[in-house]
Amino acid sequence: MDGRKVMGRGRALAYRILAAAAAALAVGVLPPAPVMAAGGYTAGGGPWNVRYCAATQCGIVGQMPNGPIPELLCQLYGERVALGNFVTNIWDKVRTPAGVTGYMTDAGVNETPGGAAFDSALSRCSGAAGGSVYFKPRDWHPLDPDADADYVVKRADWSAGDCSVIYGGNFPDVIGGHRVTTLAGWSLGRLGPTYAMEYNMPRIVASINSIILYDPGSYDEYFGAGGCDASFNQSHLYATWLSASPANRLLILAGEVTRDQDHPDAQGRHHQGIQRALFGEIRGTLLADQVLVCNYDDLDHVEVLSNFPDIVRAGPQSVCPTRLGVKLYGSWHP
């Protein structure tokens, strides 16, 4: 076995002891020792499910048995996988012995570095721009709409609790052949992009050119007791991301909640939640032109998202979206 992946770190033991915990990823445990494939990569601790995208919510398209991997095409970030003390967000695009192409967790590949490290001998998976990810404010509620995104992340999959960002990278880089370039969140889901930037800013800078916040919240929601927003310098995070490219765009659709008309500042200005939480390092700089706030003052919290679920597929936007019967009261830069 190639020494590039050190089994002594507990990886092999994790395969044996924690196979049941990996049921969503592996379908069984077979003992045969791997044989080196022509491409030099082998699977162990499986067989492993091969999926449509790099996450367990994506459908299973095949399986990779222990032994030679016919072809390992590229690597990408995907859903966080933890087997005991071994944790990785890296997935591999593979071709199975049956000829099926899909994605398996890198936890099942013996020769790659493992953990947070990509294999320098492999390329990064890519695709046409335009893929989108939407962060939900809670796991499920019958009245919650969803954005029309390629990949939807429920709260339990982006928030580990206690303001931890360890799930901040819990989405695939590529979905259905499209490279993810847009992140979006509604209500408390506003923290999804924040967690993603805090967890791995280089990944976000390299891949994301559009962030959309649907009616993100009032001043009390951003700064009230027990919340997580104040745990992060969100203004600095957004300024860092925006400064990476003049093409990057932050779009905020502000309804009644974000306008927060009962809590203006001393000059009578509204939207104090986003003004104070997000714009401190952006206001008065050239970055302000890359941020657009659209005022839909008479839309309630749910209506903001239910009227504009499809804009997550539109890419970076410099004008406010419109809908028949929805009044746009104005737009502004910080």
**How many strands appear in the DSSP assignment?**
15
Distance between the termini: 57 Å
- Main sheet properties: 8 strands, mixed
Total helical segments: 9
List the quaternary state of the chains.
single chain
The secondary-structure element order is: HEEEEEEEEEHEEHHEHHEHHEHE
| Helix residue percentage | 10-25%
Average residue-wise pLDDT: 90
Computed structural class? alpha/beta
Can you tell me the overall shape? elongated
Strand content: 15-25%
Radius of gyration, in angstroms, nearest whole number? 22 Å
Q: Give unreliable regions as ranges.
A: 1-23, 27-38
Explain how this protein is built.
The chain is of the alpha/beta class and 334 residues long. Helices cover 18% and strands 25% of the residues. The chain has helices at residues 11-17, 155-158, 191-199, 201-207, 219-223, 234-243, 256-259, 272-278, 301-307, and strands at residues 42-43, 48-51, 60-64, 67-68, 71-83, 86-95, 101-105, 128-135, 151-153, 174-175, 178-186, 210-214, 249-254, 291-295, 330-332. The strands form four sheets. Strands 8, 9, 10, 11, 12, 13, 14 and 15 form an eight-stranded mixed sheet that branches. Strands 5-6-7 form a three-stranded antiparallel sheet. A two-stranded antiparallel ribbon has the order 1-4. α3 (191-199) crosses α4. The chain is elongated, with a radius of gyration of 22 Å. 45% of the residues are buried.
Give a summary of the structure in a few sentences.
Helices cover 18% and strands 25% of the residues.
